[in-house]
Design goal:
The chain is of the alpha/beta class and 350 residues long. It has eleven helices and 17 strands. The protein folds into two domains: 183 residues, Alpha-Beta Complex (Quinone Oxidoreductase, Chain A, domain 1); 137 residues, 3-Layer(aba) Sandwich (Rossmann fold), CATH 3.40.50. Strands 3, 4, 5, 8, 9, 16 and 17 form a seven-stranded mixed β-sheet that branches. It has a six-stranded parallel β-sheet with strand order 12-11-10-13-14-15, with helices on both faces.
C-alpha cells in the first residue's frame, strides 16, 4: 500500500513523496490519519532554529499532534482495536534500558525517540502512520479528529502542572506565563481545579482567548503596572503555582521575582540551548519548589479522562484557527511560519 508522506530534509525543505507503507511488526499499529496540527516546534525545525528535529540523521516525517483511525494491528496488539480513533505520545521510551527500568522519566531513556522528530519515529504528516502499541491511546468515539489532535498538546500542559507530584486546587493563585497552545491547555487545567487563574502574555489576542478558556484575569507583562496588578490579584501574596509555558528568557527571569513564598514552579516551556541569567537565591528565601519535565510519563489514559470531563465546557476545536487539506501542506507551513500572531493552531486535515 502506498502513502503520500511529508519529509523534512532540512531548513525550508519540506517534500511530499509517495512511499510504500511498511509491513507491520507484531507490536505495531497502522493508522489512517484524520488530522495533524503544526506545532511551534515543527515551525522552528522547519526554519532551522531548533535541533530537535533530526534531519541531520536523515529526512524525517514531522507531526506529533495527530489523531487518526486504526485500520490494522499487529498480531501481538491487544489494547488497540481496528476502527477506533487514537492519538499518541511524543516521547517514546524503550522501557528496557537501565534508566527506564530504574523508573526514570521518558526523556531519560537511553534509546529515546520522539514521534515526528526523528527518522526512526515518523509523525502524523502522512496519509498513513505506523507506531507501536504502547505509545497510543483510544479516544472517545464522539471526539472529532481535529479535537483528538489536541491530545498531545493538552497532555503537556496537564502533566506540566500535575506530573511528578505536582498539585493544584481551589486554594491556589495560579499564574500561567505564556498562552500559546500549551499555555491555553495549562489554563484550562488550572481553572478546572478551581484555582484563581491568571494568564500573563504580551499578545492581546492570546490574553482575550484565555478569558474564554478559564482565566479570571489576563495581564500584559510589558505594562507598567503589571507587577502591581499581579500582586493585587493574588491578595498581596504572589502566585502559589506558576506554569512557565513560553520558554521566553524574560518570562523565566521574572519567575523568581513574582513567585509567592512556597510557590510550586512548573517549567514547561523549552529553553534548552540557552543560558538565562536568574536570581537563583530567591529559591532559598522564598522556599520555591521547582520541577520540569520533557514530555509526559504514564499519563495518557488520565489525560484523556480529564479532557473528556471538560469536553463540553471548553471548545478545543475552536482553538484551530486555520485548516488546510494535507495536499496543501506547504501553504499550511507558510501561514504557520509567517503569520504567527494569528495562526494559533494550523491544522492539517485528511
Amino acid at each position: 500500500m502506498k502513502s503520500k508522506t511529508a519529509f523534512l530534509y532540512g531548513p525550508n525543505d519540506l517534500r511530499v513523496e509517495e512511499v510504500e507503507v511498511p509491513a507491520l511488526k507484531p507490536d505495531q499499529v497502522l493508522i489512517k490519519m484524520g488530522a495533524c496540527g503544526i506545532c511551534g516546534s515543527d515551525v522552528e525545525c522547519f526554519e532551522g532554529r531548533s535541533k530537535e528535529g533530526r534531519y541531520d540523521i536523515a529526512p524525517y516525517t514531522p507531526g506529533h499532534e495527530w489523531c487518526g483511525e486504526v485500520v490494522e494491528v499487529g498480531r501481538d496488539v491487544k489494547s488497540i482495536h481496528v476502527g477506533k480513533k487514537v492519538a499518541g505520545d511524543c516521547n517514546l521510551a524503550c522501557g528496557k534500558c537501565y534508566n527506564c527500568k530504574s523508573g526514570l522519566h521518558t526523556s531519560a531513556c537511553n534509546n529515546f525517540r520522539e514521534t515526528g522528530f526523528r527518522p526512526d519515529s515518523p509523525g502524523g504528516m502522512s496519509e498513513y502512520m505506523v507506531i507501536e502499541e504502547p505509545y497510543i491511546y483510544e479516544l472517545p468515539d464522539d471526539w472529532a479528529f481535529e479535537e483528538g489532535a489536541w491530545y498531545e498538546t493538552f497532555s503537556i500542559g496537564y502533566y506540566g502542572i500535575w506530573g511528578l507530584g505536582g498539585t493544584i486546587d481551589a486554594s491556589d493563585y495560579a499564574a500561567i506565563l505564556g498562552c500559546g497552545p500549551v499555555g491555553i491547555c495549562a489554563t484550562m487545567v488550572a481553572a478546572t481545579s478551581g484555582a484563581k487563574t491568571i494568564v500573563v502574555d504580551p499578545l492581546e489576542k492570546r490574553r482575550a482567548r484565555s478569558l474564554q478558556y478559564g482565566a479570571e484575569l489576563a495581564l500584559d507583562p510589558t505594562a507598567a503596572d503589571y507587577r502591581d496588578r499581579l500582586l493585587e490579584a493574588t491578595d498581596g501574596h504572589g502566585p502559589s503555582v506558576i506554569a512557565e509555558v513560553s520558554g521566553n528568557d524574560q518570562s523565566v527571569q521574572s519567575i523568581f521575582e513574582i513567585a509567592g513564598r512556597g510557590c510550586r514552579v512548573n517549567l514547561i516551556g523549552h529553553t534548552i540551548g540557552r543560558k538565562i541569567p536568574i536570581e537563583i537565591g530567591w529559591t532559598q528565601w522564598k522556599t520555591l519548589h521547582i520541577k520540569g519535565a520533557g514530555g509526559t510519563y504514564h499519563f495518557g489514559p488520565r489525560t484523556i479522562r480529564f479532557m473528556n470531563r471538560i469536553h463540553n465546557r471548553f471548545d478545543l476545536k475552536a482553538l484551530n484557527t486555520h485548516y488546510f487539506p494535507f495536499e496543501k501542506i506547504h501553504d499550511a507551513f507558510d501561514v504557520a511560519v509567517h503569520d504567527k500572531a494569528n495562526a494559533f493552531k494550523v491544522m492539517l486535515t485528511f
